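Design request, tokens follow.
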């Protein structure tokens, strides 16, 4: 087994996804905290690990991997059981579609560096920033809610890559006080996921750098 090290920040949605996947697959790993609020991701030392200056980065015996979705795919290929992208080709594509909707169309628009740019460079006030955040969450979650069925998790009886990506996004929405009452399926999935130790142990409040 590779010795895995995850460069992480406790409230990073992308790092949160990878922590969940590592836990679901029962893998041991070390964490190296990168404090985004202190700008540690911009340091010369960290950019030698990840030239983008973003978290997470996962170090394996073969080298480093950037981008959380690439890490999830690598984990699935390297440690296929239990699978986080199960089913036939259509089912796998459906799960990836949900994951990409969250990670490519919702999360980047509301990422910390985007919000910081709004306030720091464009002088956008707090109210306008929150309206921006709420708009993209509402648009994205409305589409996702319509695609979910009656399964306990996203399209499955077991958590998959879709749930791994959804839970951190719901966590962020709740942190920004967004009313999720119109998304009962998403709320149920969030609750079901957080009943599992793998998800709870990956949550921001349980990370050492949250203290």
């Amino acid at each position: 087994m590779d010795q895995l090290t995850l460069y992480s920040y406790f409230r990073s949605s992308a790092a949160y996804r990878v922590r969940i996947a590592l836990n679901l697959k029962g893998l041991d790993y070390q964490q190296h905290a990168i404090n985004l609020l202190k700008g540690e991701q911009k340091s010369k030392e960290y950019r030698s690990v990840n030239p983008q200056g973003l978290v997470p980065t996962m170090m394996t015996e073969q080298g480093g991997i950037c981008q959380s979705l690439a890490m999830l795919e690598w984990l699935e290929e390297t440690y296929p059981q239990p699978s986080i992208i199960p089913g036939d080709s259509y089912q796998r594509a459906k799960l990836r579609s949900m994951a990409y909707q969250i990670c490519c169309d919702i999360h980047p628009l509301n990422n910390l560096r985007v919000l910081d740019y709004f306030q720091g460079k464009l002088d956008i006030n707090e109210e306008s920033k929150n309206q921006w955040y709420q708009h993209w969450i509402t648009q994205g979650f409305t589409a996702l809610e319509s695609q979910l069925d009656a399964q306990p998790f996203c399209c499955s009886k077991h958590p998959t890559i879709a749930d791994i990506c959804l839970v951190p996004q719901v966590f962020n929405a709740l942190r920004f006080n967004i009313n999720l009452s119109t998304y009962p399926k998403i709320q149920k999935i969030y609750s079901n996921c957080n009943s599992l130790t793998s998800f709870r142990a990956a949550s921001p409040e349980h990370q050492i750098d949250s203290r």
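Comment from the thread starter after seeing the answer: thanks! The chain has a mean pLDDT of 93.
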